[in-house]
Amino acid sequence: DINKISKTKFQSRDNAVVRAINDFVFLYSINEIPSPGIRFTEIEVNPVNFFSIGYDEIDEKIILHTPCKKIYSPVIKGDGLLFHNCVSKSGNSGGALLDIESGNLVAIHGGQFLITHTTKNRFLTKKTKKVSHAKMIDSSFITSFETFLFSLMQN
């Protein structure tokens, strides 16, 4: 049972990048979870090697993908987003991206952006590319988590 859900900054009227940055909540349950939990850490500026754990809607099971890396997107700018090359399937949203060396959570997979690029040649060729994105564990994420924890202590 979920006893409390954090507030969100998500607004459906925002553009897709802003929605992706703000698309997360924290949940609190009084039920014991039979797991030691996952530590999270702010991601380093340099590329990080990680693996992803997520639900595969087609095969109806949790899957592990390794290795994957942080990638650079020259088109999309969004503080708080991590672009990555992990395999992304239907149902992966909310999946964990974990640092290979430490096992710490570095980001939470959100989805994919479709980027259409027109090549200026005599045919004006259009190409569409999928870019996977995740909510990075950054200072704003940690502040939101601390605010949620503080709200639990108030009740």
Q: Can you walk through the features of this model?
A:
This protein has 155 residues and is mainly β. The chain has a single domain, classed as Trypsin-like serine proteases (Thrombin, subunit H, Beta Barrel), CATH 2.40.10. Helices cover 15% and strands 37% of the residues. It contains 2 helices and 8 strands, in the order βαβββββββα. It has helices spanning 16-22, 139-154; strands at residues 4-5, 27-28, 49-56, 61-71, 81-84, 96-99, 105-119, 125-136. The longest helix is centred in the last third of the chain and has 16 residues, at 139-154. It is globular. The chain starts with a strand and ends with a helix.
Order of strands, widest sheet: 3-4-5-8-7-6
Our measurement of the CA-to-CA distance between the termini, rounded to an integer number of angstroms, reads 17 Å
What is the SS-derived class? mainly beta
- What number of structural domains do the residues give? 1
CATH level 1 class label:
Mainly Beta
CATH topology call: Thrombin, subunit H
Given as residue ranges, the uncertain stretches (5+ residues, pLDDT < 50) are: none
Major sheet? 6 strands, antiparallel, barrel
- What is the level-2 CATH architecture name? Beta Barrel
CATH superfamily: Trypsin-like serine proteases
Order of helices and strands: EHEEEEEEEH
Number of strands: 8
The portion of residues assigned to helices is: 10-25%
Mean pLDDT: 81
Give a short overview.
The protein has 155 residues and is mainly beta.
Draw up the topology in text.
Blueprint: E1 4-5, H1 16-22, E2 27-28, E3 49-56, E4 61-71, E5 81-84, E6 96-99, E7 105-119, E8 125-136, H2 139-154
Antiparallel strand pairs: 1-2, 3-4, 3-6, 4-5, 5-8, 6-7, 7-8
